[in-house]
Structures are given as structure tokens and as C-alpha cells.
């Protein structure tokens, strides 16, 4: 048997992440030729591998053929971390503790600051914290802690592709992909209720992302939700409830844990949470884009002993490469903390110490600093939304928050891979095919990596590409 046959099926059966391919192929192409020259090489993946590789190949050609290609594919931001956070690194680099292992849950000063932040900003008043090397590692930790391979899990399409792959990579193949409301792109709560009540055994974990990647949806706050629920065909209660979480002594409650009374409004997320609680499923909410809300939207969280919230420093503070995220887990969930510690000890042991120091510096700059950066993205959002207008208003869905626009291609282009390759080759624009998120025939556009001038170029290219696509098809 060749070595290929000796590789794990769980790895072989997992799609090659589109980002891995793009970076890999882009790099090898760059190494081979100076930037700006378009190599006339044939597509080596045409018949060999899956379509992700083909997208990667064409996108790498895009990198080569357009000196300044606007990056609308990578879920990242263009800004640098707060200066004071970086200044800290200089001071702490030589401290012996920076080079040693830290505690599994994170630097005590950082976890303390995070518990405080969760309590005051997110109203999560009964949550412990585990700092991870980015929230992707946090999600994987959770999958390993909560799910067995025989379990089923739930995602909603369009889903965050890394979440899907975390399940695949850990051998969990029973991934139930639920629909989203065709107009709002909000997860279909009625479908969830039905699925969780009829599936035996009940799905172990339900995952939602708010604000959404790739959809950009923002799950509305209670007031907005009331008006949404009125137009919803199914009825469900949206009353205001007061939940009093009494102070309790958990054997592992950290000394600085913020345990206090909580006032929670019943809203959309709360309904999802209630459905999960009743069924006995875990609810994992990914809040990586909590600060990326525009106009009047307000991000909010839910708490419960079956709910786990994930957060990331990456985009908010522009520290993607430092790799810091955190899990906010319920202190009431019996045994959870101990099992999380086991997983953490076998993967990262602790998040990089120097990165945790940077994260602490970021927290000191605070969410007001983040909001100033995020405000600059509004113009990008506007420019690119306008550029999508040849597709028609109804084609653009979600898009309220995060750094993403989600659009449906005309019906005659169900093969989004082909369209994305064509855009890369012909128009020097990199887009993510909706198929990567479980919804073919759509595209995701990222606007976080572009400064305004770059965005203007991107918007022009996108618009002229779309006009050509609609007028003449994928010619040239
Ligand atoms: C929804 C969502 N969660 C998590 C991540 C990963 O974040 P991190 O850099 O903290 O691992 C991303 C990155 O794109 C994301 O979009």
C-alpha cells in the first residue's frame, strides 16, 4: 500500500480548505515567476483533484496577472493592532515567563480582563474563560470536548466552512445542514425545532455564527426581532422574560468570575437556545465579528448551561497572525471545564504567551478603538454593494454585519466555481464560491482587507465583470 492509503480517512475525506490552496498555489506561482507576468500554464488540477484546487489555481493566476489584485477573499482586516499593544511586546519579550508554558486557561491578567469584558459588554455573567490560539482552535477544542464520532451535529447554510471541516476532520460525518430563511438568511429556527425533536439520538451540537460568515447576517436584538416575527409564517413567543441566575458556588469558579443577576430578553438567539436546551443539545455561538455591526444593529449574546460562546481577537484588533481567541463556557455545565482542560493540554497547552500579552494590550485599547476601525469599512460595504447591483436587489442577502457580502448569481450560473475562476482570470477579482459554504450558485465578497482606494478599484472590476457576465456570459 502506498503512503496515501495509510493516511487517515478523516483527513482524506475533508475538503482541501480553499484558503490553503490559494496561499499555497499563489506562493508557488510567485516563486516561479516575477509578479505581474501571467504564466501560460495549463490547469494542473483540471482532472486530478476537487474543484477547490481549481479555484486555488485560477486565483493564483489572478495574483500573477494583476499587480495589485484587490483581496476580496480572505476573511481578514487591513488595520494593524493598537500601538500600545505592540509596544507591550517589546517590554515583555525578555521576561522569562513569556518563554515558559502558561496556565491552560490563559494568562490570569487576561482571563480576568476577559471575564470582566464578558460581564459588562456581552452580559455573560456566569461564564468561565479559556484562551485559545485563535477561535478556530477554540472551535476544534469544543468539537473534541463535546462530540463523539457517532454524533450528529447541526450547521445552517450558508455555513462557515472551517466549522464544517472541524467536524469532518474529527470524523463526525453526520452533519445536518439546516436551511436559512430565504429572505433574511437567518437560521431557520422552525426547522431546528422539528429536527431536534424528531432526530434520535438528538444532535449533539448546534453551531451558529453571529454576525455571520459568510452571510454577514446580524441576528437582531429583541425589538427588531418582534417586527421580524410578525412577518414570519410560524408563530412563536417573543415575550420579555427576566431570568435570575442566582449566585452559586462551583468548585472551579475562578475567584474573579463575575456571577450576578442577569436580565435576558427573549429574542431570536434565545429561541434557538431554548430549542437546544429543551432537546439537550449544546449550542455553540461564534461571535468572532461581535464589533462588526453597522447602522443601528447591536450584537448580543445568550447564556445558559448548554451554551458556549466563542470570541476572537483576530479581526477586531487586526491581530490575525498572533492567534488569540477565547471560549466563554458556562460555569454551571457540570464537568465541562475539566474536559476542556484535557483537550487544551493535548493541543496547544496554552495560547502563545506573547500573543496573550498583545491581546491584553488590545483590551486596554478597548472596543471603542475597534469601533473606529470598523466605521471605515462602511464605505467599502457601500461601494461593493453598489457594484453588485447588476445582479438585482433581491440577489443581495444578509450583509448587515461582519466583513462579508453574500450574493446570488443569476440562475443560469449554478457552477459558482467556474464563475469565480472566470472573475479571477478575466477581471482580476478574487471571490469565494458559495459552494465552499454549502450553497452553490452564490458568491461571498470580503471587504475587510481593502483600503478605500483599493476598494474603489475592486468595485469597478466587480461591476464591470458582473455586467459582462449578464450581457455576454463568461467570454474570454
Ligand atoms: C466566523 C469565524 N470564526 C472564527 C474565525 C477564525 O478566527 P481566529 O483567527 O480567531 O481563529 C473566523 C475567521 O475567518 C471566522 O470568520
TrEMBL record:
Entry cofactors: pyridoxal 5'-phosphate
Which of UniProt's keywords are assigned here?
Aminotransferase, Pyridoxal phosphate, Transferase
Q: Which InterPro entries match?
A: Aminotransferase_I/II_large, AspAT/PAT-like, NHTrfase_class1_PyrdxlP-BS, PyrdxlP-dep_Trfase, PyrdxlP-dep_Trfase_major, PyrdxlP-dep_Trfase_small
- Residue stretches making up the Aminotransferase class I/classII large domain: 81-225, 262-462
Pfam families found in the cross-reference section: Aminotran_1_2
Name the domain of life this protein comes from: Eukaryota
Coiled coil region boundaries:
none
Q: Name one GO molecular function term.
A: transaminase activity
Q: Name one GO biological process term.
A: amino acid metabolic process
What family is reported? Belongs to the class-I pyridoxal-phosphate-dependent aminotransferase family.
What protein does this entry describe?
Aminotransferase class I/classII large domain-containing protein
Amino acid at each position: 500500500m502506498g503512503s496515501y492509503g495509510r493516511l487517515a480517512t478523516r483527513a482524506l475525506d475533508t475538503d482541501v480548505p480553499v484558503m490553503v490552496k490559494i496561499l499555497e498555489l499563489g506562493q508557488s506561482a510567485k516563486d516561479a515567476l516575477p509578479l505581474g507576468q501571467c504564466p501560460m500554464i495549463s490547469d494542473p488540477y483540471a482532472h486530478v483533484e476537487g474543484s477547490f484546487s481549481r479555484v486555488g489555481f485560477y486565483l493564483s493566476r489572478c495574483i500573477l496577472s494583476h499587480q495589485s489584485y484587490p483581496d476580496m477573499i480572505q476573511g481578514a482586516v487591513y488595520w494593524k493592532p493598537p500601538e500600545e499593544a505592540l509596544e507591550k511586546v517589546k517590554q515583555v519579550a525578555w521576561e522569562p515567563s513569556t518563554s515558559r508554558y502558561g496556565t491552560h486557561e490563559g494568562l490570569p491578567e487576561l482571563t480576568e480582563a476577559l471575564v470582566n469584558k464578558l460581564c459588562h459588554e456581552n452580559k455573560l455573567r456566569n461564564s468561565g474563560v479559556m484562551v485559545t490560539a485563535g477561535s478556530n482552535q477554540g472551535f476544534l477544542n469544543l468539537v473534541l470536548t463535546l462530540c463523539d464520532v457517532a454524533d450528529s451535529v447541526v450547521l445552517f447554510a450558508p455555513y462557515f466552512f472551517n466549522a464544517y471541516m472541524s467536524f469532518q476532520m474529527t470524523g463526525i460525518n453526520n452533519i445536518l445542514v439546516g436551511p436559512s430563511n430565504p429572505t433574511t438568511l437567518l437560521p431557520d429556527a422552525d426547522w431546528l425545532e422539528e429536527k431536534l425533536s424528531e432526530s434520535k439520538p438528538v444532535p449533539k451540537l448546534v453551531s451558529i455564527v453571529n454576525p455571520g460568515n459568510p452571510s454577514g447576517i446580524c441576528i437582531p436584538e429583541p425589538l427588531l426581532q418582534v417586527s421580524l416575527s410578525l412577518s414570519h409564517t410560524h408563530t412563536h413567543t417573543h415575550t420579555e422574560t427576566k431570568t435570575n441566575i442566582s449566585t452559586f458556588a462551583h468548585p472551579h469558579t475562578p475567584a474573579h468570575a463575575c456571577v450576578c443577576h442577569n436580565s435576558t430578553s427573549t429574542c431570536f438567539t434565545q429561541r434557538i437556545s431554548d430549542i437546544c436546551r429543551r432537546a439537550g443539545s449544546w449550542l455553540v455561538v461564534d461571535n468572532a465579528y461581535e464589533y462588526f455591526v453597522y447602522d443601528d444593529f447591536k450584537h448580543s449574546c445568550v447564556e445558559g448551561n448548554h451554551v458556549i460562546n466563542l470570541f476572537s481577537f483576530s479581526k477586531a484588533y487586526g491581530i490575525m497572525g498572533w492567534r488569540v481567541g477565547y471560549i466563554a463556557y458556562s460555569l454551571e455545565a457540570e464537568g465541562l471545564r475539566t474536559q476542556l482542560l484535557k483537550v487544551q493540554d493535548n493541543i496547544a497547552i496554552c495560547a502563545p504567551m506573547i500573543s496573550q500579552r498583545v491581546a491584553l494590550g488590545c483590551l486596554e485599547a478597548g472596543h471603542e478603538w475597534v469601533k473606529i476601525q470598523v466605521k471605515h469599512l462602511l464605505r467599502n460595504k457601500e461601494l461593493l454593494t453598489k457594484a453588485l447591483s447588476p445582479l438585482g436587489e433581491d440577489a443581495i442577502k444578509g450583509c448587515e454585519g461582519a466583513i462579508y457580502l453574500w450574493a446570488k448569481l443569476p440562475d443560469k450560473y449554478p457552477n459558482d466555481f467556474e464563475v469565480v475562476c472566470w472573475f479571477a482570470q478575466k477581471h482580476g477579482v478574487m471571490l469565494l464560491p458559495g459552494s465552499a459554504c454549502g450553497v452553490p450558485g452564490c458568491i461571498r465578497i470580503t471587504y475587510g482587507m481593502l483600503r478605500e482606494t483599493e476598494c474603489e478599484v475592486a468595485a469597478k472590476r466587480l461591476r464591470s465583470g458582473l455586467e459582462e457576465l449578464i450581457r455576454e456570459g463568461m467570454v474570454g
